[in-house]
Design a protein that fits this description.
With about 725 residues, the chain is mainly β. The chain has nine helices and 39 strands. A hairpin with a 4-residue loop joins strand 21 and strand 22. The protein is globular and about 70 Å long.
Length: about 725
């Protein structure tokens, strides 16, 4: 096995640490199949991402309940020293809290006090940040038989000693050409193997080809690999790839990897020995498809839920949630395994609130759909046919014929933030986003000044929040459709986020609580408990407790930091704690609408208990420095216009102009980029690779870099003149 490339810091407290259960230090990370299958007998533990094999983000703990949660207060915090997205849920095993951080870092803490035991830094290759596309986040860990498993952004799978954090083994989970790939998902223990996926379906100029890989959990030896989409030229295709190839355009551009990446959580049923995952959208977006309802153009197995046999990696079944997806309706949202009473009989099911607006209940042994019900407003589909295939409404959804307003948006009616299923209430709690997007194929729209946006797909996705202006967008992309006069129901020009309680058996909404409005944010994932409480954070910094049956808000705590992750709860020495990671990031880099508008976006672990402190310590207030006088502008209007087009094509996904964001506001010309030479060295030579800024010399030329710089100088002059007017100076 290759030597470890990563560092670990072990704190002296570790030598004295004894778990709350009285276990010795030799018992760190003591999780196995028997213990996981009896997780309900140890309600104080949180041994997997969703607590147990069902991945329902539900806890049987009830010391904190609907009658006393008003007493919930601050217990302790841990600062990671980072300022990017925190999207994962910690694990707790025998009094140790294992925390996933950015790049694939891991922090082990005393679960009762938050005192650090050890930390691990994988020193991930920063060049992979470009393939991540969704920030350098990590969505979870696995703890198994004395080890902690984590995947770094550069897709190395590490097995760490759970007691010390030292690397037992590591392996590169990628094979072949690694350009464009990155990893953000949680490893999944499945029998004797650990399974990992990857991201990057839309990176670069063609995206990557998705797959999952399995490695022996003890040694790291390669076990099997399953590709989610077919290769253009495959001389020895498997039967699954032969079937998939028949649903793709045989004349498609071979530079596109096809997408279908598996970038979020997986699930595993040990009784069936099946590992489940959802796949991302196909690339490119707007490819030819069969609108007649046939299977040509379905592009298997993108936008699908797939079940593999964990022992061999062979396919057991698949169900494509969005055949021929051209709307970015990934099927990667969290999967929950449960037993439901369907027509009076217990059924072992898999549930997902898909991005496309349908809530799916599938038989998890066969993949046969039991129900598929809209849980959010949609106009792309009018319902399901007899084969549980969505019926597409071309009048609203076919943007090949012209720009269209499509519901739900590419953000999804529900995205990656985990939902929770409570067997106590029988309800699923779904973080939802109610909004449309305007989809424009800029290669075909008359009047468009853009030709190659969204990583080479040619499709512009515009989410019309409160800042949306036709006057800003139409000069760039051409004429756009108008929203009707608001009537209180969709369609409308707004973004609304809510926590929805959904009955998966009856297929109906039980209650809804608005969480955000008119901002492009993803509020946090959900946790439900036997105490009749649902916990969920918001990106405005509030951490909220709801009555699980009515949706009534029982407690609100203002933390000062955006909360995107799903909370978890555990017990040490008879005290129940609720813990959540805080820090904004992901694909929405702008801090507008989040707590990061006022406070520094500090990565933290926040932990609460009954009768804790009334106030949560806040990060430092954000200070907006004045715009300094830009350099003189010598570029022509044509060059500046070209730079504007390049900005929307390559930069806008990460860099927001004129507003606080995680990444630098390029229009302020800070960090020395007022110098063209410095700017070119960053963009074309990778000077800031160690900071996570990729190089673009494979797609941008020196004239492109000069045009971009001219555009940013022009934007800086606009901001500078506005600032001087506000200050009363000439």
């Amino acid at each position: 096995m290759a030597p470890a490339k990563g560092t670990v810091c072990v704190v002296s407290l570790l030598a004295l640490f004894t778990s709350a259960s009285g276990a010795s230090t030799a018992a760190f990370g003591n999780v196995d199949a028997s213990r996981m299958s009896h997780a309900d007998q140890e309600p104080g533990q949180w041994m997997a991402n969703g607590r147990d094999a069902g991945a329902g983000y539900y806890s049987p703990l009830a010391r904190i309940n609907a009658t006393n949660v008003s007493r919930l207060g601050f217990a302790w915090q841990f600062k990671t020293g980072t300022y990017r997205g925190m999207e994962a849920t910690p694990l707790v095993v025998d009094g140790v809290l294992y925390v996933p951080g950015i790049w694939g870092a891991v922090y082990a803490l005393d679960a009762a006090s938050g005192a650090p035991l050890w930390s691990f830094d994988p020193h991930a290759d920063p060049a992979f940040a470009r393939g991540a596309g969704n920030d350098i986040v990590n969505r979870g860990l696995a703890v198994w038989k004395g080890r902690v498993y984590v995947v770094s952004t550069d897709c190395r799978l590490f097995a760490l000693d759970a007691r010390t954090g030292k690397t037992d083994w590591q392996v590169n989970s990628l094979v072949g050409d690694k350009r464009g790939y990155a990893c953000s998902g949680a490893p999944q223990i499945a029998g004797h193997v650990v399974v990992v996926g990857n991201a990057g379906g839309e990176s670069g100029k063609g995206g990557v080809r998705g797959y999952v890989s399995a490695f022996d959990a003890d040694s790291g030896a390669f076990a099997w690999r399953f590709y989610t989409v077919p290769a253009v030229h495959d001389e020895h295709p498997t039967p699954e790839m032969q079937r998939a190839a028949a649903t793709w355009d045989p004349s498609r551009d071979s530079s596109f990897g096809g997408g279908g990446t598996v970038w979020d959580e997986l699930a595993y049923d040990p009784d069936l020995d099946l590992v489940y995952f959802g796949t991302g959208n196909a690339a490119p977006y707007n490819a030819r498809r069969d609108w007649s309802g046939g299977h040509s153009g379905d592009r298997l197995y993108a936008a699908s839920i797939v079940a593999l046999r964990a022992a061999t990696g062979s396919m057991a079944w698949y169900y494509q949630t969005t055949p021929g997806d051209i709307w970015d309706y990934d099927a990667t949202a969290s999967l929950v395994l449960a037993t439901l009473q369907i027509s009076g009989h217990p059924r072992r099911v898999l549930m997902q609130a898909n991005k496309n607006g349908y809530f799916y209940v599938l038989d998890r042994r066969t993949g046969q759909p039991i129900s598929a019900t809209p849980y959010a407003y949609m106009n792309w589909s009018t319902g399901m046919d007899g084969a549980f295939r969505p019926i597409v409404d071309r009048a609203h959804a076919d943007y090949d014929a012209g720009p269209k307003i499509v519901y739900p948006s590419a953000v999804g009616a529900h995205s990656w933030t985990p939902m929770s299923y409570s067997p106590a209430s029988g309800l699923v709690y779904i973080p939802t986003v109610d909004t449309a997007n305007i989809l424009v194929d800029v290669r075909k729209n008359p009047g468009s000044r853009l030709s190659d946006v969204d990583q080479g797909t040619g499709v512009m996705i515009i989410i019309p929040d409160s800042t949306f202006s036709y006057g800003v967008w139409e000069p760039l992309v051409g004429a756009l459709p108008r929203f009707p006069t608001p009537s209180g129901d969709p369609p409308r020009n707004s973004v609304r986020a809510a926590l929805e309680a959904w009955d998966p058996v009856k297929g109906k909404r039980v209650w809804s609580q608005r969480t955000s409005e008119d901002t492009q944010v993803l509020d946090g994932g959900a946790l439900s408990t036997a105490g009749n409480v649902v916990f969920a954070g918001r990106e405005d910094g509030r951490f909220v407790a709801y009555d699980a049956r009515t949706g009534k808000i029982l407690k609100t705590i203002d933390t000062g930091t955006a909360v995107m992750a799903a909370p978890m709860t555990y017990e040490v020495d008879g005290v129940q704690y609720v813990s959540v990671l805080a820090g904004h990031g992901g694909s929405a880099y702008a801090l507008a609408g989040t707590a990061g508008m006022r406070y520094i976006n500090e990565g933290r672990v926040l932990t609460f208990k009954l009768d804790g402190a009334a106030a949560v310590p806040r990060p430092a207030l954000r200070e907006q420095r004045p715009v300094h006088e830009p350099p003189s502008q010598a570029a022509s209007r044509e060059v500046i216009a070209s730079g504007e087009s390049l900005y929307f094509t390559y930069c806008s996904r990460c860099h927001v102009l004129g507003a606080p964001a995680i990444t630098p506001d390029l229009s302020r010309l800070e960090d020395g980029i007022d110098s063209l030479d410095v700017f070119e060295s960053i963009v074309l030579k990778g000077t800031l690779l160690p900071m996570g800024m990729p190089r673009f010399d494979d797609t941008l030329s020196e004239p492109d870099a000069r045009a971009l710089h001219a555009y940013f100088v022009a934007q800086a002059w606009n901001a500078y003149r506005m600032q001087t007017r506000d200050d009363g100076r000439p």
